[in-house]
Input
Amino acid sequence: MSETAQRKASGYSWYVLFVLVVVYIMNFIDRQILSILAVDIKADLGLSDSDLGFLGGAAFAVFYALFGVPLGRLADNWNRVRLLSIGLAIWSTMTALSGFARNSIQLSLARMGVGVGEATASPTAYSLISDYFPRHQRATALAIYSSGLYIGGGVSLLIGAKIGQMWNAAYPGGGPLDLVGWQAAFLAVGVPGLILALWVASLKEPVRGAMDGAPSTGSSTPFRDFFGDLMSIVPPFTVIGAARRGPAALAVNLGFAALTALLAWFMVRVTGNLLQWPAIGVGYYAVFSWASSLRARDPATFRLIWGTPAFICTTLGYSLVSLVAWALGFWAAPYAENVLQLERQELAFWLGANGAVSGFLGVIIGGRLADHLRARNPAGRILVVMFGVLAPIVPVWLAYTTSDSFVFYSMSFLAGMFGAAALGAAAATTQDLVLPRMRGTATAAFFLGTTLVGLAWGPYLVGLISDLMGTVVDGKPVGDLRTGILALIGVAPFAMALLAYAYRAVPTAEATVEERAGERA
Output
């Protein structure tokens, strides 16, 4: 057995992991609390289901994705602990500011700010974990970290429902500063993050790549590289970046911009949604610009990410799993309240507990199983991702066709646990397909899929289908959330096709990382 294979995580490594899990819990409390508050926000601000889907998806996801790329590069080159603490302070502040929103535009802007801040979280955390844990423990560590997603999402329902109820009971006509319950809930979960940022700042920065026996350092000019990446992905500066690469690059960039603008305009005409499609267009154009810039500036990283079909198919395959997960995570509470007529405190408790426990069990069991299969088969982790596609189908169908609350809660539990099993396996696979110096960038690319495919589309598609299939009652439109949610099952064949290809391609891709990169690890 090699020296690298014998390395073990220290006690301090597990302490760092614990802190990162707490950060991720806070991350998802701030991100997902919108779900339990959605019914009140919809009524107060006069929104449709597709409007809510935008707020719960693309409003956050596009800016999370755009800034995740340059911040992922900064995580590769600068102090990751400092970057995470700064990002935590930013997204906590923006969450608190959401509580002062008086219309959908203000709330959208605040959610965009949350996306910018939270874009620091996973690139820094994944990179830190990869340098605190050896390869054979990495999927388990990443799965434990990912449990914060489900714990935070579940706790957000409990906190949001309780604070909203208590505030509205104490101030029926609006409290201090004329704030109502849902606004107070945003304030209550945003402010504690500023304190947590100080705790994060106390962590030690590990030596990059040392756990893999290949110590390395980042760029000597991290902020110059960061601003270069920022200009390569944030419109309209992307045009300047393309022009610097030459007339041909500029023409291709402008052509793609025109195409995405035309498609966005067409979809606005078709759906009437003025925010979703321009946001999606900006996101996809920005990613295209960044990938083109990366290809010119860092061809090795481009080859191992965008030029590796195994990486792309693993990311997109899991992104379709996340599309379903994000949609269910956002719409389960409004569905239970509106369709099943369940009392908000009850559903917040049961769905919150469901999400926390099922997600935690799913990512832990899935991570352990993925590491076990990986030891016997280089593509073994992909089998766990496939399980995350297929296993939730029957529970989702049963949960959203029943009128019995027990069946709804129990099937939601199973669907959540089965789907969660895929995350650690997919994340660890993508980390193993790049060199240590590229892990932050690879994480950012991985989360481009889970955000611009999963989060940006999942909640909105359910809301759109709900609006299209809905009826009018007493002169008011009433959506059909049941049909919107059940339509999610249709993504499974596409996910399985992508993952089947990844299963065949991963072993060769992993074995040739250094060769294809053209540099030593």
